[in-house]
Amino acid sequence: MYLKLTDEELTDLLRKNDSVALETLFNRYYKPLCHFCAVYTKDYEAAEEIIADLFIKIWDGRSDSSILNIKNYLFTSARNLSINYNQKKKDPVDSIEDISFQNHIFEDTHTPFRILSGTESVSKILRLIDKLPERQREILLMSRIDQVDKRKISEVLGISIRTVETTLYQSIKELRRMLKDSTNLTSRG
Question: What are the tens digits of pLDDT across the range 12-62?
Fold first, then answer.
């Protein structure tokens, strides 16, 4: 019976202390949330722990909950908790700068100048990506940095593949514009 209920119906039952409603929501969203969270944490075990804690918090706050859309709430909370996890960790797993540097450090064809200028370029691009609107930045990073395919991005974010493609196109177009503008400013200065 519970499997056929909508998210809204389950949320209402949850407010009435129905533990089976929580279990149903948990079974419905646990895996997609863990995958989504792991995109940010780069650590699936940490993602599982974050999501388990999230469901505990939902259960603890069930009586005074004013959640209207549980799916949006879960994914937004998962993203925020993942970002908090990364900030607390203070030990970046593998930043793009580290990967770029590690890939080129032992190659004889790359001079120290080229290595540094390549790292500076990556840093510049990352700073520009940070200026993109949140959804564009999120989809661009998932697609191009984390190598998540468009279908998976659409599942994780709960949007259509077409929306993913359009947003990705817009973010790349905007990033190119910002790169061009910053290059023009540098060459003038």
Answer: 998 999 999 999 999 999 998 988 888 888 888 899 999 999 999 989 888
Burial (Cβ within 10 Å: 0-12, 13-18, ≥19) of residue 60: exposed
According to the CATH classification, is domain 2-89 in 3.40.50.300?
no
Hey, where are the domains in the chain? 2-89, 96-188
Fold of 96-188: Arc Repressor Mutant, subunit A (1.10.10)
Number of Cβ within 10 Å of residue 34's Cβ equals 20
Please give the DSSP secondary-structure letter assigned to residue 141: I
Phi/psi of residue 153, nearest 5 degrees: -60, -45
Burial of 18 (0-12, 13-18, 19+ CB in 10 A): middle
Is the full-model pTM beyond 0.90? no
